Amino acid sequence: MFKITFLGATETVTGSCYLVQYGNSKFLIDCGLFQGEDVYKRNFDEFDFNASEIDFVVLTHAHMDHSGLLPKLFRKGFTGKIYTTPPTTQLAEILLLDAAKIQESNYSRDNQNGNTDIIYTTFDSLNAIAGLVSVDFDEEVNISEDIKFTFRKAGHILGASSVFINLGEKKIVFSGDLGRVDEAIIESFINLQENKYNADYVVMESLYGGVVHQTRPDATNELINLINETIKRGGNVVIPSFAVHKTQEILEILKEAFAKNLIDQEVQVVLDSPLAIKATSIYSNNTTFFDPVKYNLTDPQIVRNIFNFPNLKVTRTHKQSLKSSNKIKSIFIAGSGMAEGGRVIRHLINNLPHKNNMVIFVGYQAEGTKGREILEGQKEIELDRKRVKINADIKRIEGFSSHGDHNDLLEWLKNFDQTGLKKVFLTHADPDRSEAFKTALDEKGITSYIPKWKEVVELD
Question: Which residues does the UniProt record annotate as the domain Beta-Casp (predicted)?
Answer without folding.
Answer: 247-374
